[in-house]
Write a structure and sequence with these properties.
The chain is mostly beta strands. Strands 1, 2, 3, 4, 5, 6 and 7 form a 7-stranded antiparallel beta sheet that branches. The radius of gyration is 12 Å and the shape is globular.
Amino acid sequence: MKIEVRTINDGEIAEKDVFKWPIWSCGVSEFDWEYDQQESCLLLEGEVEVSSDIETVSFGAGDFVVFPRGLKCRWKVIKPVRKHYTFN
């Protein structure tokens, strides 16, 4: 189960209606997380490192990230995060 990190253009942001998705924020911290649904998110602020059994992925402001359903991971929030998110 790989985490997908990519850049998203304005057209895709509009098509997905990303700015209508809820916002989640979190301060500097570390915690375990498990995804029971796929999550897509666009980071507005922050810097994060997420580790699973198979990879460690870093991402930050401007990145579009997709976490697969069933992923068990550890979040390390390096700089406070604000993101739009949705579950599919």
